[in-house]
Specification:
Layout lengths: L7 H7 L9 E5 L4 H15 L7 E4 L11 E3 L2 E2 L2 H17 L6 H16 L3 E5 L17 E6 L7 H4 L3 H9 L7 E4 L7 H12 L2 E4 L3 E3 L4 H4 L13 E5 L8 E5 L5 H19 L12 H10 L7 E3 L8 E3 L5 H14 L6 E7 L9 H9 L3 E7 L16 H11 L4 E2 L9 H19 L2 E5 L2 H13 L4 H4 L2
Parallel strand pairs: 1-5, 1-6, 2-5, 6-7, 7-8, 13-17, 14-15, 14-17, 15-16
Antiparallel strand pairs: 2-3, 3-4, 9-10, 10-11, 12-13
Length: 472
């Protein structure tokens, strides 16, 4: 099955299901939209911690199981609850001979589930693009605010070959009369495209607030962390947003300089809700500088510059789903920031990539394999993601060729048996990485695909650990 972007099928399917009415924050962008959604759902939970107040969140792709893409109050829905909602959607699809895609079925399942439980607020992450993405089926009346993180080249075969074309697709989730938060952009052509779309439909542009680092304050933040610790401590931040007179002082646990920009988008959404909400929200006054700061501090987002303790390793493993050139540059900058002296750092990469022409392995891997480091690479496959039969991993030979081109002196792991399943190959590669780390020190990094990250997490769970408990 190939990807066929269209709203025709999901609009028909939605017509046979209960009307979606939940107040929704709709988030698009190339990178960072998942982080923004995690920040927002955590902030909303901190503002209304009662179990009767329900915050829904939908992210894709899922992490380890398809039902974990749907979250209620920061916990994945149960497999049984998911299956019941999915069955209702699949039956409607079958009864009316619609032929919805797997992602359309999943999106309808999420929306139906949120409606069933009466979610007080929903954070909805776009799957790909925006204009024709299945999540864009939600009615105008349900949209509190739309937001867009940084836009870069990705999925060009579906969204267009230029940043401007991709921005046009993504910005088209904007709704008439509703606020639209635009995050900071690396490419100057994005903002004019967005402004043009907003002007045509009558949406309101909301600029993101400035979020900056501040010095550690033991009175606010607790005991000062030790210097050069791995992983680094949360980042102390200061933000002024229009809806509050008082500034926000918080600790941001999400790692990397880029997360300041993602937090700015999340705070822009909060400000838009406080000042531009198109519907009456009884909980809106619970969004205060204090509850927002608490929500920021409580945010967890596995698989995005997250650190995990793993049995057999002398140091935590860095796990990141960087899957395109922009996110690989972000990961490379973060790794560089960890270096404590001028000596080359020993880096052992566990790498897998999705096949996504015209994007090439070398384009994605160049920022990582060009680092001034003692590099070793384990080229790997990943398990086929559930419900996504079109996803394929790059063959080992392509990854090896890119590694040899980009890092001629790199050590390349050759201990795999191509007949073994992806988890077995990953387990063997991790054993090799543990031995190398014990000898050379340095970092072990799992990267290149969230599907590889999912395999890593499933192996972690086999040891009796959980993703949450292993995170530092």
């Amino acid at each position: 099955m190939s990807i066929d972007l269209s709203l025709d099928r999901i609009r028909r399917l939605s017509g046979y299901l209960p009307t979606y009415t939940r107040p929704t924050c709709h988030i698009t962008g190339t990178n960072g939209k998942g982080s923004v959604s995690a920040l927002l759902s955590s902030i909303f939970r901190a503002a209304s911690p009662s179990p009767e107040f329900i915050v829904g969140r939908f992210n894709s792709p899922h992490l380890t199981s398809v039902h974990d893409s749907i979250v209620l109050n920061d916990a994945p829905v149960s497999a049984d609850f998911f299956a019941a909602a999915r069955a209702r959607v699949v039956q409607a699809d079958k009864d009316h001979d619609i032929g919805a895609s797997n992602f359309e079925l999943l999106t309808c399942t999420a929306l139906n589930l949120f409606e069933t439980v009466g979610a007080d607020v929903v954070v909805l992450e776009v799957g790909m693009g925006g204009r024709l993405d299945a999540t864009n089926v939600i009615p105008d009346e349900s949209v509190l605010v739309s937001a867009m993180t940084a836009v870069d080249l990705d999925h060009q075969a579906f969204l267009g070959g230029t940043v401007a074309a991709i921005a046009r697709e993504k910005a088209s989730i904007a709704r008439s009369g509703r606020p639209f938060v635009l995050g900071q952009q690396l490419h100057g052509e994005v903002e004019p495209v967005v402004l043009g779309i907003l002007g045509k439909i009558g949406a309101h542009l909301i600029d993101v607030p400035v979020v900056g680092r501040r010095t550690w304050d033991e009175g606010l933040d607790g005991p000062r962390p030790t210097a050069n610790q791995i992983p680094p401590p949360p980042t102390p931040i200061l933000a002024h947003i229009p809806c509050f007179e008082a500034p926000i002082h918080a600790l941001l646990p999400l790692q990397g300089q880029h997360q300041l920009g993602n937090l700015a988008v999340a705070l822009g959404v909060v400000s838009a809700i406080r000042t531009n909400a198109s519907v009456s929200l009884p909980w809106i006054d619970r969004l205060t500088p204090g509850t927002v700061a608490r929500g920021i501090r409580n945010t967890r987002w596995p698989g995005r510059l997250s650190w995990h303790t793993v049995p057999g390793f002398v140091a935590p493993i860095l796990v990141d789903g960087a899957h395109n050139a922009a996110s690989a540059r972000t990961l490379a900058a973060y790794i560089t920031s960890l270096s404590q002296d001028e000596r080359p750092l020993a880096l052992t990469f566990m790498l897998a990539l999705s096949s996504s022409p015209p994007k090439t392995p070398s384009q994605t891997l160049a920022p990582l394999l060009s680092l001034n480091a003692d590099v070793a690479v384990a080229p790997l496959p990943f398990s086929p993601p559930e419900g996504m039969p079109w996803v394929r991993h790059e063959p080992r030979d392509a990854l090896v060729a890119s590694a040899r081109e980009l890092a001629p002196g790199a050590v390349i792991w050759d201990g795999c048996d191509g007949n073994q399943d992806p988890p077995t190959q990953l387990r063997s590669a991790l054993d090799w990485a543990a031995r190398r780390q014990a000898e050379k020190g340095g970092l072990v990094v799992v990267a290149g695909s969230l599907y590889l990250v999912a395999d890593f997490y499933r192996l972690l769970e086999e040891t009796g650990e959980t993703i949450e408990r292993s995170m530092i």
